[in-house]
Amino acid sequence: MKRERGHKARMYPTPEQANALEAQGHAARTMWNLLHDWWTQVSENRRIDLKDADAAIRQSRKDIDWLAELPAQAAQAVLKTYVQAWRNCWDGRAGEPTFKARFRSRMAIDVPQGRDLGIRRVNRRWGVAKVPKIGMVRFRWTTDMPVGKHADAHNKVTGARLVREANGWHVVFRVRTEVKEPAPHTGPGVGIDRGVAKPLALSEGTFREHGPWLKAGEEEHLRRLERKFARQRRNHKPGHKTSNRLRRTYDQIAGARESQAARHRLAAQDHHRPGRDIRRGGGRTACDRQHGPIGPRNRGCPRHRRWPEGRAEPLHRR
Questions:
Q1: Strands of the sheet with 207-208, listed across from one edge
Q2: Distances (CA, A) of 277 to 173, 237, 259, 271
Q3: Which residues contact 40 (CB under 8 A, 6 or more apart)?
Q4: Angle between helix 15-41 and helix 50-63 axes, rounded to 10 deg
């Protein structure tokens, strides 16, 4: 039985490769928008022929330079994806395709042929893949894939899709593997409940622990968490009342921060207008609230100093 799954990995392109990927992503988005405008302008009784659309895409890549930055197979994949989106809409699985805005849409570049990727594992944590018109790009190797000598007619990578996320570029590999047919269940039906202390609880009264479905990394991570839990010390006993000491302390801290923020807001209002907000500030101006009250060692705001009567304010101070 064939099983197709996607595996997502983080890519680390160089600055030049990232700029080229951005250009290809915008070209693919523009290609989608042009197809969408063409499709929505024609009548519903006369849909666009795929051959005409493919010929228009080929001609546009010849006439427009920045559309030619998108590889030919990626441009054809945009057409297939757009037509499939309408089929999903007609079958009730999704809504109608819409216009892809520049800042609200996620850029994506399709590499439909897996043989063009040339995936190769460099070391334990890194791998490289060949992107058309970009070159070899590094990505984070997080799981084993059927590449190189491990690939055959039934186990291989059939393609990939480059996606621009908020934290950078990612590659989603389409992995096809051959698995055994599940054996038919001849026993009675049983209910399964998932839990924390026990992963699986069956209705017949038995439990199932973490076992064959855990990967090597997940099993090691679970083991570290169990060791950490065993070393931790529990101060609060089950069934006893919780202490309010920390809650009162946190409330005091929040009140102090709120009052401090209010004082800063008052001090920032019209710093050089000493006559404003005097009533709300308790008879003090904004300058006095920020620089403190006038005293023997404090002359207040540098722009509104109060000098004793009969003494002129110096014009230049060194």
A1: 192-194, 200-202, 207-208
A2: 63, 53, 17, 11
A3: none
A4: 130
Q: Which amino acid is at 289?
A: R
CA 129 to chain centre: 22
Beta bridge partners of residue 111, listed in sequence order? 160
Q: Which sign, positive or negative, has the C-alpha torsion 285, 289, 290, 294?
A: positive
DSSP 192-230: EEE-SSSSEEETTS-EE-S-TT--HHHHHHHHHHHHHHH
Q: Of 66, 68, 49, whose CA–CA distance to 58 is shortest? A: 68
- Going residue by residue through the chain, which has 318 residues, state the pLDDT in tens, using 9 for 90 and above: 888 899 999 999 999 999 999 999 999 999 999 999 888 888 776 777 888 888 988 898 888 888 888 998 999 999 999 999 999 999 999 999 999 998 888 999 999 888 889 899 999 899 999 999 999 999 999 988 988 888 888 899 999 999 999 899 999 999 999 888 888 888 888 888 888 778 888 888 888 887 777 777 778 888 888 888 787 766 667 777 766 666 767 677 777 777 666 766 666 655 555 445 444 444 455 555 555 555 544 555 555 454 454 444 444 444
CA dist 54 and 156 (Å) reads: 28
Q: With CA atoms as reference, report the closest residue to 286 among 299, 308, 265, 270.
A: 270
The DSSP letter of residue 150 is: G
Sign of the CA dihedral 53, 54, 59, 60?
positive
Q: 234-243, long-range: CB within 8 Å, 24+ apart, which pairs? A: none
As a whole number of angstroms, the longest Cα–Cα distance in the chain is: 108
Count Cβ atoms within 10 A of the Cβ of residue 192 and give its class: 0-12 exposed, 13-18 middle, 19 or more buried: exposed
